[in-house]
Design brief:
Layout lengths: L6 H4 L1 H7 L2 H10 L6 H13 L3 E3 H8 L3 H15 L7 E4 L4 E4 L1 H7 L9
Length: 117
Amino acid sequence: MQGGSAATPRRDWIERLLSSPVFAAQRRMAGRRAPDDQLVRALLAALETHRDRMARRLLMQVLGEPEFRLRSILTGMQRLLNVDGYQVIALDDMSDIVTLNRQLLNAQFQLEVPLSG
């Protein structure tokens, strides 16, 4: 059985993000208001599972956080991930949908693995 191993390669991008120099710089700038790495992992994994778009209410349930806390978590995530004001993670107040722009995340945090040739 290979049950747990299938998720590891899929989530490799999260570990690359957390160990990137850009993320370390963002964490220093965000200070204590930033969510810890465990919460960042859980939130990004939840978004990935739902194709990078989730209703805020569902995200609240998946993370097991009350609404008031989720708002501060999302604000902290935006401080960490929205480099130079680019909306890597966003909450649309009209639709109440949290979105993750993976293409922008990869570019901002230099997560693309260069092809050797």
